[in-house]
Amino acid sequence: QVQLVESGGGLVQAGGSLRLSCTASGRTLSSVAMAWFRQAPGKEREFVAAISWSGGSTDYADSVKGRFTISRVNGKNTMYLQMNRLKPEDTAVYYCAADRIPDATIATPSRARAYDYWGQGTQVTVSS
Q1: What string of DSSP letters covers the chain?
Q2: What's the rounded Cα separation, in Å, for the pair 4 and 95?
Q3: Cβ(79)–Cβ(62) under 8 Å?
Q4: Are the CB atoms for 117 and 1 separated by under 8 Å?
Q5: How many other C-beta atoms are found inside a 10 Å radius of the C-beta of residue 44?
Q6: How far does CA 115 lie from the centroid of its chain?
Q7: Contact between residue 91 and residue 40 where contact means Cβ atoms under 8 Å apart
Q8: What 8-state DSSP symbol labels residue 101?
Q9: How does pLDDT run across 17-50, given as a tens digit for each residue?
């Protein structure tokens, strides 16, 4: 059984930084795409960033481009999201997700339904 566990969330002032981690257990995820999504209160879950299996291709939502960086260390079965210049509108529960099917391409899906495994989420709160 695959489990994804996020960590690194918390409370930060606007303009600050946080680094989220997502560690997988139960299966090696080095051959699948992974992504971060977030959900703010009263809003639908939205795409934040995705990374291909090798880390060679990434994709970002326009709202975070230039401020967030997604990365992964396959040897540690871990993915990261470095978040800089945080804004109050970044406040949300952040979820990591992973595909189930190995993909040798550089695909970085942005649709939630492309991912089969999900973490429980970590809260990020940005105060103004």
Answers
A1: --EEEEE--EEEETT--EEEEEEEESS--TTS-EEEEEE-TTS--EEEEEE-TTSS-EEE-TTTTTTEEEEEEGGGTEEEEEE-S--GGG-EEEEEEE-SS---S-----SGGG--EE---EEEEEE-
A2: 9
A3: no
A4: no
A5: 8
A6: 12
A7: yes
A8: S
A9: 999 999 999 999 999 999 999 999 999 999 999 9
Contact 78, 21 (CB under 8 A): yes
Tokens coding 125: 């709160």
The number of CA neighbours under 13 Å toward the Cβ of 103 is: 21
What would the pLDDT profile of 97-109 be if each residue is shown by its tens digit? 999 988 878 889 9
Give the pLDDT of residue 89. 97
CA 74 from chain centre, in angstroms, equals: 15
Question: Rounded to whole angstroms, how far apart are CA atoms 65 and 105?
Answer: 22
